[in-house]
Amino acid sequence: MKAEYGTRRPAPGRTSDPDPRSPKMSTSQPDASRQSEDRATPDSLLHTRTGNEVSPEDLVLASGKDLTPQNIEWARRKLAEEGPSAMEKILP
């Protein structure tokens, strides 16, 4: 038996058409006790600060740069100008 081009054959043991008498898949209703997905994230979870002091090394690493004397000096200047919020600007 030669299959024609473009025709699909059912898998062994299966028929090509689904049995109309077979039960349909059930669709579940959303759980009424489930909280809405549209709630806003609390502000405390949106920021990277953990309450610890930000070091120049932390700022250099967070910016994706290597720990070189020049980059550490850049981070010291940035922290002196902007304070700990410099980290927030890099990792909001």
Task: Describe the model.
The chain is mostly helical and 92 residues long. It has a domain of 40 residues. 34% of the residues lie in helices and 0% in strands. It is elongated. The N and C termini lie far apart (65 Å).
Outline:
Residues 24-33 have a biased composition (Polar residues). By secondary structure, the protein is mostly helical.
What distinguishing features does this structure have?
92 residues; mainly alpha; 0% strand; elongated
Unreliable stretches covering 5 or more consecutive residues: none
Please tell me how large the radius of gyration is.
30 Å
Query: Based on CA inertia axes, which overall geometry fits?
Result: elongated
User: What summary fits the major beta sheet?
Assistant: none
Briefly note the structural class of the backbone. Answer: mainly alpha
Q: Please tally the helical runs, counting DSSP H or I stretches of 4 or more residues.
A: 4
Distance between the termini: 65 Å
Q: In which range does the helix fraction lie?
A: 25-40%
Oligomerization = single chain
Number of strands: 0
Percentage of residues in DSSP E strands: under 5%
Order of helices and strands: HHHH
Mean pLDDT: 74
Biased composition (Polar residues): 24-33
Region (Disordered): 1-58
